[in-house]
Amino acid sequence: MSKVIRDFIVGNPYWNPFVTPVDLAAADEEQRNALKITPSGGKVSEYVLVLAHDPQILDQRSPLFNAVMYGTDGLSVFCVALHSARYIAASKQEDVIEEVFATRSGDALEPRPGAIFNFAAELTPHPPAPTAKTAGALREAGLSDLEIFDLVLCAAMFGWANRLMGTLGEPLESKPV
Length: 177
What we know:
56% of the residues lie in helices and 5% in strands. It is built from eight helices and two strands, in the order E-H-H-H-H-H-H-H-H-E. The chain has helices at residues 29-35, 46-51, 55-70, 77-91, 94-103, 111-123, 132-140, 145-168, and strands spanning 14-17, 169-172. The longest helix has 24 residues, at 145-168.
């Protein structure tokens, strides 16, 4: 049996759904239409196939999600694992990610990404608790009103997506056999 991951890791855990995903071959027309707007590179994830149980919601969710994830600009364990691996691949700074994991703070990052990390982390809990200090650090790092607004919207969308993914499944070390 594969172990559930409870802490942040670098890598690619397996997302194990609590409900059986829609069988793509057996999907009805409404489900297939909703799945068409998911840019998958040929494979539709189990997560999206779970969401296909409600094709009307999937049809509304996917354009926003795709614009953020796959656009040109484009905290769950699963998401942190993927994004930290990409950060390390791009920056070659594994020690920085280890420090972020240990402190749950962006203080080890350069000033701009550190300010963004810390502000977004304060937006993540329920209720959100951003402080004047972290908001001021965004200004000191040179973020404009539009960039701060975009950050708030992105943090809200990812917070929602992480809570949804965590409600519908859990990250495992590997796919169960």
